[in-house]
Write a structure and sequence with these properties.
Elements (H helix, E strand, L loop, with lengths): L9 E8 L6 E5 L16 E2 L15 H12 L6 E3 L5 E4 L5 E8 L6 H6 L3 E3 L9 H14 L3
Parallel strand pairs: 1-6
Antiparallel strand pairs: 1-2, 2-7, 3-5, 4-6, 5-6
């Protein structure tokens, strides 16, 4: 979609999985969401895989979204990458929203970059108070991350 914010019809769930311990943490933003960079609308619901929306306009390429994220987080190129197996769409007022799963690539999570934007890394158990749709998104993300 045209406009100045390429993340308007997309959201990104950031995670870090430690290479040795496999500890997985998600980035939680100051506005109590794991969806960068804006919470999902209240009536959002996951769309079944069989009912994925057809393109109804221009869709931002993930590279454009990642560039926007690098700028917001002040991180270098290559600091994260899209997990291609995660294909989830959410139905919301105003149209379908694509959800991307993005992995931080460094050995340790970028704690300072997160803190600079008011975000923090959480374990899955610290997400219990998130909206139900976000919990479902995290469950699907966890399944992809763990390979199951």
């Amino acid at each position: 979609m045209a406009g100045s914010d390429p993340t308007r019809q997309s959201r990104i769930i950031f995670f870090h999985k430690h290479g040795t311990s496999a500890r997985t943490r998600f980035l939680r933003f100051a506005d109590d969401t794991v969806c960068a960079f804006a919470p999902l609308p209240q009536r959002a619901a996951i769309i079944d895989q069989g009912a994925l929306p057809q393109a109804s306009g221009i869709e931002s390429h993930p590279a454009l979204l990642l560039k926007e994220c690098r700028q917001r987080l002040q991180l270098p190129e290559g600091a994260f990458g899209v997990e291609g197996e995660y294909r989830v769409w959410v139905d919301a007022p105003g149209g379908a929203i694509r959800i991307l799963l993005v992995r931080f690539t460094d050995i340790d999570p970028p704690f300072e970059a997160a803190a600079a934007i008011g975000a923090r890394f959480i374990d899955l158990t610290e997400a219990r108070d998130l909206p139900a749709v976000e919990l479902l998104l995290l469950r699907r993300a966890y399944e992809v991350i763990l390979g199951g």
